[in-house]
Specification:
This protein has 25 helices and 17 strands. The strands form three sheets. Strands 8, 9, 10, 11, 12, 13, 14, 15, 16 and 17 form a ten-stranded mixed sheet that branches. The protein has a five-stranded mixed sheet with strand order 2-3-1-6-7, sandwiched between helices. By secondary structure, it is of the alpha/beta class. The protein starts with 16 loop residues before the first helix and ends in a 5-residue tail after the last strand. The longest helix has 32 residues.
Length: 690
Amino acid sequence: MTDPTDTRDTGPRVGTPLWAFLAGVTVIGFTALVVAMLRLNPGWLVELARTPLFWMLAVLVILGELRPVMLSSATVVGGTYPSTMFTFAVLLHLGLPVAVLMQAVAVAMNGVVTRKSWHRVMFNIAQSTLALTAAAVVLGMFGIVPSPALPWVPGSGDVLPIVLAGIAYFVIRATLVSGAVALHERRSITRVLKSTSGPQSLVYAGLLGLAPLVVVVMNHSPGLVPLFVAPLAAVYFTATLSMRRDHQAMHDELTGLPNRKMLIVSTEEALAEARQDERVGLFLLDLDRFKEVNDTMGHPVGDRLLQMVAHRLTHSVRPGDVVARLGGDEFAVLLPSIRDTHAAREVAARLRAALTEPVRLEGMTFDVDGSVGIALYPDHAPDFELLLQRADVAMYLAKEGRTGVELYQPDKDRNSPERLNLLGDLRRAIDNRELRLHYQPKVGLGNGAVHGVEALLRWHHPAHGPIPPSEFVPLAEQSYLMRQLTAYVIEVALDQAARWWHAGLRAQISVNISARDLLDSALPEQLELGLARYGLPPGAIQLEVTERILTGDQAYTQETIKALATLGVPLALDDFGTGYSSLIRLQRLAVSEVKIDASFVRRIAESEDDDRIVRSIVDLVRSLGLRSVAEGVETDEVAMRLAEMGCDMGQGWLFGEPMPAADATAWLHEHYEAAPDVEYGYRAEVSRTA
């Protein structure tokens, strides 16, 4: 897969250190190439060109230069070319002029095939020429000066000069290439050498170590030389498979950008090597209105848009900066070295400017924008996790304020250390099953029959006492714990429902879940297994979501909704009237029950506006063939008005307060009355209210 972050083909600006380095190496290397060619007798070259061995070696060198052996997708200096083995063998057997000539032709052909920029091709010819020249100088110190007229074949006593020549070749190539990479990405050459010299040295040792054997075979049986291609091909394909697995593990499949795992590694390296006068910047970027493109044009067009965004972002940052995709339409940008907050804001502004260029796809033009949050080391956080969290806080500030770019501000961070400690305590409370469900009745307004109970989640903290759900449920929703909390509530609710059903109280349980839970593909399977384990029918449990889900993603198009419908688990809509639902979405979500928010119900006896709102909702729900439930019923007058409106059920302190499971069981046995025309249900909900 082509790395979209590779900007090495972009020519350096004249006068920069990188330009001076490339120009210097190129001039020196081509000078050495010219000097070597002047030493080549034209007659020798003509005679050599008449031999099959020359052309066989030339083909092997060219083919070996087309694709490198890659041990890791994270290797910044690229791979090692198999042509090294045959070029070094030519150097040992026929001398420097022939070796540099073959290498130069092979590198030039590689540049044509892979469409490298001219400055990269020239530099590669120069650095390989200098490496071969260094090896030839070492051999010359031992009196070994091969030529086409006097080919050299190593013997058992020539191990030392060959080893030293190979070391010289590797050191020169590694130093020159690492120097170019270090200047291109503004990294220390020590860091580049440290990260690449180990894997590179192993491959070079294998290739250079085989070169003397190639020479021996060339001297005795030239026709056997192509057999070296077989083990070389095995090494190449093994390394390629390993590299692909490594690439898949460290890169996003759609865009080819680094993923979260590679971003962590890159950030930790940058933090470890940051100087005292430097800052490390981590940006979090979220696209605005991307969902509209997906909903309007479909996911294939959305994927192409994400690929275009990835390309724009990578070409809007400096070499050495890392652009990663964290998932969905969320990207991260790592700046291993940034001067100050002003420079960080300039980079963020450049990123947004690149995004705002109109995008044309499928004959339509899209205007894309993004919100960027900035967090800096060491100003805002000492490690990756905290940097990412605080960049996330800044990004949401940019979204809320519609400012586009925001720097992390501690006074606006809602994620206090106390909240983080509470999150850890909540995780332990779930693991230790310390949370409890208390039940409140849901009663028919027309006949007084018990239709179910609402279970309110309770947490008695060992140190802080009772913690209201309004504090810990939103905290769980914003973290990794919501899925675990929902699974816990479903398990407890099913267990209690089974006790009631098997005792003759045929109850339906309604569990309140978040939008994230509703889109979890594992939810239907968990429900199916739980119902089977407790011997309950699908109608024994009901899932409840707030009206806000209708104003966000179209959840009814998701596979989870379809799986729940297939399973037969009904859906209820809570807090109706507080959002901006459309009738079409309400119908497509296929809810069986609608709960009217308590903020309207409590005031219907005092406010004509609230009375009209509730009456309209009841009429609407009835017209759609759904059940209506009024929350917050606390007085007889409110209950009578709701019954007169035609509301099906009521729930509130008028009928009963929340009770522990044992008390609720006793209450149900006392008030339960079977009626064939009534659907019974007991509702277990993660409630935000006490």
